[in-house]
Amino acid sequence: MSWTRVFLTALAACVLFGALLVGATGCGSDEAREDDGVKPSPVGKVLEDTDEEGRHYREIDKKDAPKVAIEIQPDADSDGWDVRLTVHDFRFSPAGTRKTAEPGRGHALLRLDGRPLSFLRGPDHHIAGGLVPRGTHQVSVRLHADDDTVWAVDGEPVGSTADITVSDPGPTGTESAKAKARARARAKTTATATSGPGTHK
Predict the structure, then answer these.
(1) Coil, helix or strand at residue 178
(2) 163-173: buried (b, 16+ CB within 10 Å) or exposed (e) per residue?
(3) CA–CA separation, 160 vs 71, rounded Å?
(4) CA gap 53, 33 in Å, rounded
(5) Coil, helix or strand for 3?
(6) For residue 81, how many other CB atoms are within 10 A of its CB?
(7) Are 175 and 85 in contact (CB under 8 A)?
(8) Main-chain phi, psi angles of 147, to 5 degrees
(9) Cα–chain-centroid distance for residue 185?
(10) Fewest CB within 10 angstroms: 24, 117, 125, 165, which?
């Protein structure tokens, strides 16, 4: 009788140990499957869509999205252009910030005719006149998260665009001064200048 009890006890122990082993193995498999999958982003959803250089868009709700407007004016003191960004629900991150997407934070990428021009960590920038040849050009800006994804709403990047036109050199002196004033008074999204220093119109 005692041998029967010992045998049953040993059998029960084996069954229990096997169940625990299977359970542990099952948990490990679930964790492995979870790790192999794509983890949800802490901020918005990273889309397959990318910008011209391959940076992914980060989709967020419109109500939570930052906003940016760009204003460009001819530099009154030198040949070039002054860029001013106005942002809402967005803060520029300083250099060296950890590359993690945080709501309403990041940097901006300025483009000239679609080509990257400069990363901005503040609202002000100067475009040298030599970078803008004669003709009409498009200056655009997009807001990026700190991990360099592009903030987007409805699949479109959060950004703003302005046009600048560089024409042939015009009159100098008083007429030029009047021309500068007219150029500075133009709408925020448009600025016009000449290719010669101090000769805006």
Answers:
(1) helix
(2) ebbbbeeeeee
(3) 9
(4) 32
(5) helix
(6) 24
(7) no
(8) -90, 10
(9) 30
(10) 24
Structure tokens at 83: 């860029």
Backbone angles phi, psi at 78, to 5 degrees: -150, 170
CA distance 35 to 47: 20
Residue 111 has pLDDT above 90, yes or no: yes
State both tokens at 146: 């700190």
Residue 105 has a pLDDT of: 97
123 vs 85: CA distance, rounded Å = 5
pLDDT in tens, 148-157: 999 999 999 9
- Integer Cα distance of 49 and 59 in angstroms: 10
Residues 6+ apart with CB under 8 A from 100: 42, 146, 147
Going through the chain in order, the beta strands assigned E by DSSP cover 45-50, 56-59, 67-74, 80-88, 91-92, 105-112, 115-120, 124-128, 135-144, 150-153, 156-157, 159-167, 190-194
- Tokens, residue 81: 């252009």
